[in-house]
# Entry
Amino acid sequence: MLQILRNKAQSTVIQAIVVVIALVFVFWGVGANMMNKREAAITVNGEEISFQDYQLAYDRTYERTASQFGGTLPKGLAETLGLKQSVINQLVQNALLRQGANAMGIIVSQEEIQNTINTMVQFQDGPGFSMDKYKALLAANRLTPHKFETNMRFEMLSEKTIKDIGKFAALTSDFEVEELYRQDNEKVSVIYSVFSPENFTESVVVDDEELATWFETAKDNYKSEAQMKLRFLDFSFAEVGKKISIDDAQVQAYYDANIAQFTTPEKRRARHILIKAGAEDSEEVHKEKRQRAQELVTLANTTDDFASLATEYSEGPSKTNGGELGYFTKEQMVPTFSDAVYAMEVGQISDVVKTDFGYHIIKLEDITPASTSELNDVKDVILSLLQNKEAQPLAFQLANAAYEGIIGAGSLNAYAEANTDQQVTVTDYFPKSQPPAGLSLDGEFLDKAFSLNAGELSSLIKTSSGYFIIFADDLKEPETPALEAVLEQATKDFIAGKAEEAAKKAAETMLEELQGGKSFADAALSLGTEVKDSGFLGRRDNTESTFPASLLDQVFRLTQKEPLPQQPAPVSGDFYVFAFQERQIPEIVAKENLEKYRQALLNSKQQELLAAYISNLEKNAEVTIHSNL
# Structure
């Protein structure tokens, strides 16, 4: 139906129908979202969640995610990450938790809400809570104290419910904890061989007839890309935002509420020497390693070349760089290590510092103090963020009005001639992989543009950067070249394919010989491949091993009785054949080593219980999502 309307836009009757549809769309469709009509965005068992509440939740999630990318999400990333669905799911689950809390008699008192608000850093001014700052920040975010405190009640009620449900999973047996510890710290070693296609390339013979036959099956891989020639109207939030006035109070409020975005924490640069000793090592080993580390402290304090000592004695991966760790914040290192570094002066060498990795001797090289950008330095950034946010409903209204105008005028050209202030962007032919500047990151725009037929007008398109209306001037269909036109590349691909087949076949032959009882050394010798030893592999932190981390799951499933995988394992084009050698089960030498595993197991049980509880609520819930979401 929409296609008929677009293709027949010149018809007077059709134009009238479309105008009526557009008006209904404005006042009852997306317009309902923007104009905050009575319709609910989401209904959960009769409880309504307004479009305003949805938008506030979405904005918080968007801004929190954007802060990880310097304040603005790259185009299309919000959709790729599924932010909208994530917010909908969270709002539904929170509503179900609140309803569950009511059923269980869980409440949040007004006093609890006030105490929480009084301690929130956003509302502090000097020694304590500031009512003026509280009201100003809420006003800047279009919230009344009643609305904010209601939202706080909902959130705190959800948190209380989660905690109370978690109490039902408060026990973990010693057996479970010890088993988790052993599984997490066990190590396995394998011997292996690698069959790489590049070792078989020279043995591939190119036969012209075979190449031609192969090309018939692969020729679609060499097709040229489809190319589009477009005209479009751009209602981006950035452009529309330039027309919106933001006062200094709004900028100040955003700055105050999001000060962490503009703060760079203190960073320190250090070198270290690591003497490895893990939880699986005996007390005797720890005593020996601790003594060696103590001797290195003495040695380090008698020389100016700490880097050379690290290169010679360290057992960590940074030894090749003289123990260099670069700049890091306090939170980026394990607490014991960070506490030591952040208590030192530049040039100082620490005493022995113990972590789960072993024993460290640290030298502090430099300190970069923490800093907070002044408001004037980030004012333009904040202004742009606030304008873009305010621009979203206005951009829709402008784009929708333009779409009505195009339908009414009969074509994009006619509309542009009558509205000379409206700029139409015109492109030359381009493939999807090489779009014009400014469109390279907007996957939604490109997907829609390349779904159009020549001479077709799109509907109103919403992307993460704004709204668009696209007209496809022309389309060049993909073309399949003759073999002669791509002979060089096709020959390379043919050889690469044959070499990969040969590498896989050799790996399969070796595995068959091993399964038949042949020793690993003899099988490798007969196929002319090298035998390698992985050394003991843990489930994590195998930086000194060249064995692929992607194969660890398979390796840890091997046993003495079943020492071989079912088939060779492909990794980055190579094929691996490996066989179990030995499993190292750690002993539990100290009960304190188990506490983090007990807590991890308890957290896992609580999460499983909560997930099951929410899943059961969702299964029996009546949830309605507005079509505009």
